[in-house]
Structure formats: structure tokens, C-alpha cells
Design a protein that fits this description.
Layout: H1 4-16, E1 20-28, H2 38-52, H3 56-67, E2 71-78, H4 81-88, H5 93-106, E3 110-117, H6 126-138, E4 143-151, E5 155-157, H7 158-174, H8 181-184, E6 186-190, E7 211-218, H9 220-228, H10 236-265, E8 269-273, H11 286-292, H12 303-319, H13 339-346, H14 352-358, E9 366-372, H15 377-394, E10 398-405, E11 413-417, E12 421-424, H16 434-439, E13 442-443
Parallel strand pairs: 1-2, 2-3, 3-4, 4-6, 7-8, 9-10
Antiparallel strand pairs: 1-7, 4-5, 5-13, 6-10, 11-12
């Protein structure tokens, strides 16, 4: 039975503590759209996406009105386009422009899947798609791209790492008149999940059903508010218990929204991603949660320990609320999207090196980090390699979404608006790693890969 106090508590979470469903993401397989003729393939893609997702936006809006639950984004994730390009050949930009047209027709916020999975090498279509990513992102508003360059099973594909450092720099350069937004729509993964509903890294994996609904929930403000009421001498294990109970409530809401959307759209329900995804709104911050635990500022010594506990408690609480946990699930630390992290960066306390340490214990990795525009592409590749190594050895998903701020230096700022927020340009270690990056080849899979 749900009592009145629980209802009032949920209303307060939504009205005052920024509780929301961050995204309803429809995953669509495009494997049956592959064709030796690229134009014919694009026709099939447009027909399938617009048919299946025609009511996605309206359904989200209807649920929002009926239940009073904010649903911030409606998104689509598709089969990695490199697979279709391997069949058709031709100009990859045709696929990007087709996806953009689909997004505009059905009225979603983003469409992800201009992607390639190259953790063990390049197959047909992979390199061609990667080469086209900067132009694809520059010529579209809704298309997002991702490339998986490593995994615990395969190791790290260093030729792809080198190439992605160059493509990130190029994507920023091509969109320098739009705050370098191209690089903000591009993620480089290790151990990319097949059911991630969050952009820019969402794609629809080949092991997924033909069409599914995935939900990403978010509630950093709710967790922060719960911790703010706790006594300052409350032991850490009791704080963890408080986070678990709060994460349970947040996840139940996501489970409900996902099931309702699934029923109304006639599409199977996939997963709930339990991630605490912050926004630039004051109070809706993962950094503020860590500070409520007792840190003066996010980035102080103890930050990694607090984040590890937060991530674990969110998963433990969320997994009790749904049997459909998936995606990334944990605590995100996107700098430009988190008011507390922006403040800590501006104070010089939160550094790139500390962020890298934090990524060993939380969801994803170096996310929405703005770096000087003149950083060499090989240094970006070195950042990618380090993050991929953390993911590979720890058997977890890690990623890099860095934005070279063309024409700007440390202390200046890029402003993206909306959920992407604004990002102060962070200092990057200038020491060269070019010789190592130029070696190419593959870093072998670690011993942890031998689990069979």
C-alpha cells in the first residue's frame, strides 16, 4: 500500500529536488535495413524509424502530464551504422543525414548510433565511418557518435585510439563557431554496453531485440537532499544505507514509466539505467552529494572514496527496485553538466588527474571535459588510452568525451546551454606521449579476460 506521506514525498522530490526521468530511449535494430545500395538502405532506415518511433515523443509527453513526472528527453538509439556501411559502401554522410531527418520527423532530442565497434580491429565500414564522424556531427544537430576502442576481452586497439584523438580535434574544429559542439556529441568507449539509453554514447547492440524501450532515471538532487538532513556524525555505512533507500525510490519511478511507455507503444520494455545524471541546475549535482558526505569541495582527498560508496549504494538500492537493470548505472561525473563540479574546477581543486582517479570507481569516465583548443591530438589519444586501460583492467565501462575549445585557453569557458551546461577549460599535462601513440598495434587483453 502507498500511503499519503510517500505520495507527498515523491511530489517534493519532483518539485524541489530535481527528480526526473532523464530519458526514454527507443532502441531500434537496423540490421534488416542493410542493403548493397546505400540509398535504398537509407530509405529502409527512414521508413522503419519513423514507423516505430512516430508516437515516442507524444507518449512521453502524455505520461508526463498524467503522472506529473518530468521526462526530459526522448531519444532513439540504432544499430552501429558502421555495420550497414560495411554492406553498402558509399558515403557515410548519407547515413548521418538520414538519421538527422528521422530525428526531425519524429521530434526526438537526439539519435545515437553513428558508431563503430573496433576493440579488436577494423572490419568493413569501420574506418570509413570513423573518418566521416567530424563531418557527420558538424552537418547535423541531433546525431550522436560513439566508437568502442577496447574491452576486457579484446584489449585496446591503439590504431583506433590514435585515430579518435585526431577525430575529436577535427570535430571541435569544424564546429568552433558553435562552441565546438561536435566534440560534445562524440564518445570513445571501452567496454561499451549494448543497452545504454544515455547520449552521446547510446547505440542499439546486436544482441538486443528488434525494438525496445530503455529508461534512464536521474535524481542527484534527491540524494543530496536526503544526506543534507542526516546528522554530521552519522557513520559512513549508515549514509550508504540512506542512499540505498533513496535510490530504490528513484528507480521505482523509472520502472513504472518504462512499463507504461512500453505498453502504450507496443514495444518490449528493456532496462532501467540507474545512473545519477546531474544537470547544471543548482542542487542537482553529484559533486554536492559528495560534499554533503563531508568534503569541503569535490576534488579534495577522500573524493574517490565517497564516490565509490555512492556508486555502490545507488546500484544496491536500484537493483532491488527493478529486475531490469542495465546501461551504465551508477553516478555520472560530467563536468560541464554539474554545477558543483564546475565550481570545484574553477577553484582549481578538481583537476583532470583527480577526475581520472574518480573514473576508476564510478559510471563511465572523463565526461564533458573542456580542454585547451591547441592540445595535440596525440595527447587526446593518450587520455583515451588511459581511460580505456582503467575500464579494461577493472572490467567496467569507461569513456572519454573531451571538447577541445578551439581558440581558448585555461580559465576561459565554453557554453553549450541546456543539459550540456557550460565548461571551464581545464589544464592538460603538456608532456608528449606521441611516440607511444604512434606505435599503434594493440595492448593485449589482461589476465582478467580469461574467465571461461
Amino acid at each position: 500500500m502507498i500511503n499519503v506521506n510517500e505520495i507527498l514525498e515523491t511530489i517534493k522530490m519532483i518539485d524541489e529536488e530535481y527528480l526526473d526521468v532523464r530519458t526514454i530511449t527507443m532502441g531500434i535494430s537496423l540490421l534488416d535495413c542493410a542493403d548493397a545500395d546505400i540509398d535504398r538502405s537509407c530509405e529502409k532506415i527512414y521508413e522503419k524509424i519513423t514507423r516505430l518511433a512516430k508516437d515516442l515523443g507524444k507518449t512521453g509527453e502524455d505520461i508526463e502530464k498524467e503522472y506529473g513526472i518530468p521526462i526530459i528527453n526522448k531519444r532513439i538509439a540504432v544499430t552501429p551504422i558502421a555495420m550497414l556501411l560495411g554492406v553498402s559502401g558509399g558515403d557515410p554522410l548519407k547515413y548521418a543525414l538520414c538519421l538527422e531527418r528521422c530525428a526531425q520527423t519524429v521530434g526526438v532530442n537526439f539519435i545515437g548510433g553513428f558508431s563503430a565497434l573496433v576493440q579488436k580491429g577494423f572490419s568493413a565500414g569501420d574506418r570509413e565511418l570513423i573518418e566521416a564522424i567530424p563531418q557527420a556531427l558538424a552537418q547535423s544537430d541531433h546525431v550522436c557518435a560513439s566508437v568502442n576502442v577496447g574491452s576486457t576481452k579484446a584489449g585496446i586497439h591503439m590504431d583506433a585510439v590514435k585515430l579518435m584523438g585526431e577525430k575529436i580535434q577535427e570535430a571541435a574544429e569544424l564546429t568552433k563557431d558553435r562552441e565546438c559542439i561536435g566534440a560534445a556529441k562524440l564518445v570513445v568507449f571501452c567496454n561499451a554496453p549494448e543497452d545504454n539509453p544515455f547520449m552521446a554514447g547510446a547505440f542499439h547492440g546486436v544482441g538486443e531485440a528488434d525494438c525496445v524501450i530503455n529508461v534512464g532515471v536521474s535524481g542527484p538532487g534527491v540524494v543530496r537532499a536526503a544526506l543534507a538532513k542526516a546528522p554530521k556524525d552519522l557513520p559512513m555505512h549508515e549514509l550508504a544505507e540512506l542512499i540505498k533507500r533513496t535510490a530504490f525510490k528513484i528507480t521505482r519511478m523509472g520502472q513504472m514509466v518504462g512499463k507504461i511507455a512500453s505498453q502504450r507503444l507496443g514495444v518490449p520494455f528493456g532496462i532501467v539505467d540507474l545512473s545519477l545524471a546531474p544537470t547544471p541546475a543548482i542542487g542537482d549535482s553529484v559533486a554536492y552529494i559528495l560534499e554533503e558526505m563531508g568534503l569541503q569541495t569535490c576534488g579534495a582527498y577522500g573524493t574517490t572514496a565517497c564516490l565509490a560508496m555512492l556508486n555502490d549504494a545507488v546500484k544496491k538500492g536500484g537493483v532491488m527496485a527493478t529486475n531490469s537493470v542495465g546501461g551504465l548505472s551508477g553516478a555520472f561525473i560530467p563536468v560541464s553538466e554539474d554545477a558543483g563540479m564546475i565550481e570545484a574546477t574553477q577553484k582549481g581543486i578538481l583537476t583532470l588527474e583527480k577526475l581520472e582517479a574518480m573514473t576508476a570507481v564510478c559510471s563511465v569516465g572523463l565526461d564533458m571535459v573542456v580542454i585547451p583548443g591547441d592540445v595535440d591530438a596525440s595527447i587526446i589519444s593518450g587520455i583515451i588510452a588511459d581511460e580505456a586501460a582503467i575500464g579494461m583492467v577493472n572490467s567496467k565501462t569507461t569513456a572519454v568525451r573531451v571538447i577541445p575549445a578551439i581558440g581558448k585557453q585555461v580559465g576561459e569557458e565554453l557554453s553549450f546551454g541546456g543539459l550540456l551546461g557550460k565548461g571551464p577549460v581545464m589544464r592538460v599535462n603538456p608532456a608528449s606521449c606521441e611516440v607511444m601513440i604512434q606505435r599503434g598495434g594493440r595492448i593485449p587483453a589482461p589476465l582478467q579476460a580469461l574467465k571461461n
